[in-house]
Amino acid sequence: MGTARVSGKPAPLVRAFVDGIDEVVREPSSGQGLSAIQRGWLAFCLTAILVTNSICWARFERASLGAYSLAAVSWMFRHAKMPWEQLLVASVRMLLRPYGLTSGSLVLDDTDNQRSKAAKTIAHLSKLRDQESGGYIWGQSLVFLLLITPTISIPVGFAFYQPAPELSAWYKQERRLKEQGVPTKQRPPKPPANPQYPTTQELAVRLVQQCKDQHSALSVHCVVADALYGTSTFVDAASAIFDGRQVITQVRSN
């Protein structure tokens, strides 16, 4: 099987998409647009993702047959002053406009991505409970927000969840002391919440609020989430953001 190649010039559809993103980013409410080099780099990355079906700098380099070096492509990602926060917002608007979509429902979910045990420098790494095996894996936990419409379904926001180190240490000690039969009064109290490590419910509320702020013209019918978000704090906050819209979730028995 031959090696797929990324040509020197991106496909017209990719160029049109990148130019459209640039136009949205340049809108008065957004700010400065992308430079020619940034547009070219972004178009190359999108083309390489489509060709290699992955997000991997080494595969991008191989697919370009030497036209783009690994160092140059990854340097742009790490050091370029790209308006990263605006690119996803602009992409969503670019997809909604051609279809004339003005309404939909929001769905919240989360997923765990396993990483190599040797990984140390990737952000938001932590030990995660593996639901399939019942053990633990080393990886990243991601909370994401989807917009569901009759025509398309697209991601509109995401955030990484990472447990507070002091809370993880407390849970570990709590389990050990329980197994030893230490009474509750003699066990250390649960540490207070650390604002630097928000809970999944807090991240979910932030994502819903961001969607409201970034796509104010979008009419949301309801917000759907699984049992993990079935708390009154999340349900009330999410409903209030969209003026009392219905929030559907699995309420906990307690």
What does this structure look like?
The chain folds into 2 domains: 12-86, no CATH class; 102-162 and 197-248, Nucleotidyltransferase, domain 5, CATH 3.30.420. It is built from 8 helices and 6 strands, in the order H-H-H-H-H-E-E-E-E-H-H-E-H-E. The protein has helices at 12-25, 36-52, 57-63, 70-79, 84-99, 165-179, 200-214, 232-241; strands spanning 103-114, 126-129, 136-148, 153-161, 219-224, 246-248. Strands 1, 2, 3, 4, 5 and 6 form a 6-stranded mixed sheet that branches. It starts with 11 loop residues before the first helix and ends in a 6-residue tail after the last strand. The model has no long low-confidence stretch (mean pLDDT 86).
Q: Number of domains in the coordinates?
A: 2
Overall mean pLDDT stands at 86
Give the distance, in angstroms, between the N- and C-terminal Cα atoms: 56 Å
Approximate shape: globular
Range of helix content: 40-55%
Instruction: Please tell me how large the radius of gyration is.
Output: 22 Å
CATH fold category name of the largest domain = Nucleotidyltransferase, domain 5
CATH class of the largest domain: Alpha Beta
* Total E-strand runs: 6
How many helix segments?
8
Name the poorly predicted regions: none
Q: Helix- and strand-based class?
A: alpha/beta
Strand content: 15-25%
CATH 2nd-level architecture of the largest domain: 2-Layer Sandwich
Order of helices and strands: HHHHHEEEEHHEHE
